[in-house]
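Recap from last week: sequence in, structure out.
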Amino acid sequence: MARAPARAWQRMLSGRRLDLLDPSPLDVELSDIAHGLARVARWNGQTQGDYPFSVAQH
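Predicted structure tokens:
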């Protein structure tokens, strides 16, 4: 029996599918990257205050 090829993909915010095993620059949207970085806390969230410092703000 033939084995199916491995598949691994991520659905991006824009709706695009990003093939994680064979990524293509054509599958990447700048807005997807910006949105993801805006939600990642800088220094693993180890900052004080009411407003976390995101990677996008860095």
